[in-house]
Design brief:
The chain is an alpha/beta fold. The chain is built from 15 helices and 17 strands. The strands form 4 sheets. A 5-stranded antiparallel β-sheet has the order 3-2-1-5-4, with helices on both faces. Strand 13, helix 11 and strand 14 form a beta-alpha-beta unit.
Amino acid sequence: MQQSSTPEEIRVDATHPEQKVANTEVLQFQQVIADLWLERGLNELQNQINQCLAGAYHTQQSLQELEAEVFQALIQQLSVSLKTDKVAIAFLQGWSSLVVSDAIPKHISRTESNYVVCYSALSTSAASTEKSPAWQLQQIISHQELQALQNQNPKAAWALQDDRKVVGWLIIATCALPKSATGERLKFQLQPQFIERSLNVTMHAIAQLKHLQALTLKCQQLEVQNCDLLRTNKLKSEFLANTSHEIRTPLSSILGFTHLLKAQGYNPENHRHQEYLNIILTSGQHLLALLNDILDLSKIEANQLEINKETVNIPEVCRSAISLVKEKASDKNLQLQLDIDANATTLVADSLRLKQMLFNLLSNALKFTNKGAVGLQVKQKGVFIHFTVWDTGTGIAKEKQPQLFQAYVQISNVVAGRQEGTGLGLALTQKLAQLHGGWVEVQSEVNCGSQFTIVLPLTTAAATSKTKVVPQRSSVTTDVRLSLNSQAAAPKTVTVMLVEDNFHNAKLMTTYLRKLGYQVTWVNSAAQMWEELPKAKPAVILMDVHLPDVDGLTLVQQLQANAEYRHIPVIVQTAMAMKGDRETCLAAGAIDYISKPIDLQALANMVSKYSDLNH
């Protein structure tokens, strides 16, 4: 018995390890298959997503459409790999895109809001026949239901997170753990890892789309800026060309007629010489007007231009504007008409700026009108005053009208010949109207004339506020002889000290003031000023700001700090004309301010006023 039993026992012991080894190898092989299943599913998902991302660079699809393709790829791959059509993605109600929306609205509470199924692997017809839980498009799911699905075993809901915020949910109804087929059981165990890694791949792609959106927006902004820069550069070149012509034309007159006067010897009794002087004066005024227009537009664009509101007499301003263009209308044999509504008597505005706007429109109308008439019509309509400048000129084509109010842009015209001016008049007029709380309207047809209407409120809300006193920009005196004759002779004992380093400006002011009877002591530096002050004992000091050794404003402060000279009024004269320049001069201790080019009549009035105070 013992001999027979021994072989049986040996036979059993010999086969058991072999079976064990075989089972282990099978298990390892099935594990490899399960791992390959996971990697294959992830690779297929990544390939689909890569195709979607590539479409962002090669197609005209919107980012929202590409986002939908990415989520649909996730739904499809999970449905195929997990062998279930019960896969869905839900977002907060009213918020269905991660790419387009940067953040969930603050008023939405994630714990109380409902979610809407936006993507689903289940068709509507199939969902209606399913007995087990399933999710179809537009189905509403509460936050509590999603949390329950997240906490159940096996897990059926995964939060979609973007920047550590829950932005949606992935919902999957997985099958129960298989009771047989070891390979299927292994795949089942890998399902949570597969789903988590699939979510990571998808959310990374969404992050890339959001980054792409930011780059696309930046690219679009740069394209717009580049177009604006190209347009600005073109306009700048055109502006410089036109401005060069506008500056050189009057300069040619000034230099040419000055040369003639010098060569012939000036004779006050010679009427031709008087004509030369008038041309020189008119050319200088044209140059000043050009510079003022450029300066005004720059101030407006920098929000530095202030308007001095007051009660304006409408008929008086209109007649003044008409008188400014009367000579030009006469030269072209054009009628000038003025029609003012009896009710249009006054309004609250800046009278100088209103006259400037009317002058710009009237000048344009005359420039583009060859025959017929140009007129100004004023009507009160409700709480607004309409100033309409009309003409019988060539008119403006509809397609060109949007360009009218662009700075430096000029509309070519046969009547006007070459492009006169700099293209600033209408742009400046529109901006000045807007500063008054109004606007400019245009009606025009080719060969039927044009109508430009400035619409201004009778009163403005700002009119009751405290307005700053803005110095009037200087203008060249229209007749120097009249200025000299109308100014009363000053006592010869009154001495004016002129601190000016420019010889020509000093010569002009010295000659003018001496003709008025003042004694003028001219110095061209701070050192000379301190040297001459004790001898001259001036009643008034005219101080230039830019001096070679010491800044003029610093000199003013030094004079104020000196007990012996602080009583002497100092009038600052400078080419500075921007907002705040006058306030800066007064803060330094100056009693008044006059800008270059010097208005000789204004200069005479200031010197007379402050020399009287000091005597």
